[in-house]
Amino acid sequence: MNSLSKNRLVLVVDDEEDVRETLSDGLEKNGFKIKTAEGGTHAFNIILDDFVDVVITDLSMANGMGRDLLRRLKDLPYDDRPLVYVISGYDELTSDEIQKFKVKKFIQKPFSINSLIETVSTNLKDTITKK
Questions:
Q1: Which of 5, 13, 85, 124 could form a disulfide with 57 if both were Cys (CB 3.0 to 4.6 A apart)?
Q2: Rounded to whole angstroms, how far apart are CA atoms 53 and 65?
Q3: What are the b/e assignments for 97-130, b being 16+ CB within 10 Å?
Q4: What is the reported pTM?
């Protein structure tokens, strides 16, 4: 377990239950605390209720809320804004959208869960050292 992951809350947002479960299981095994949401509205409500360190969200969900969630997250105050990772098998974000929505990284499906965990852990470490 990575000491940086201990007590870090990751919110996994995807309309596919198997994707949420796979990501949650892998992240939990690496010491992260997990919450899940099947859409953008539910996810944003969780963020308003809890301090979330990281959001991993699908872009193309059945309810179309991927980009809406990104719009809402970018408007949060800096200290309340989680690191945001976007995963998708279909849509891609342009480099302008990545900057506009303050996305840490766009990850194309399929991807390696271990690679995602390593990326999140490294970015959390970088965030801690900059504060």
A1: 13
A2: 20
A3: bbeebbbbebbeeeeeeeebbebbbebbeeeeee
A4: 0.90
H helical segments located in the chain: 17-29, 40-49, 66-74, 95-100, 113-130
Task: Give phi and psi for 80, each to the nearest 5.
Answer: -100, -5
* Per-domain residue ranges of the chain: 9-130
How would you classify residue 102: left for phi > 0, otherwise alpha for psi between -120 and 50, otherwise beta?
A: left
Q: What is the pLDDT of residues 51-85, one digit of tens each?
A: 999 999 999 887 768 889 999 999 999 888 999 99
Measure the CA–CA gap between 47 and 10, rounded to whole angstroms: 10
Distances (CA, A) of 95 to 50, 100, 103, 115: 29, 9, 10, 21
Q: How crowded is the C-beta side of 91, counted as CA atoms within 13 Å? A: 17
Q: What is the DSSP letter of 97?
A: H
Structure-token pair, residue 108: 């194309």
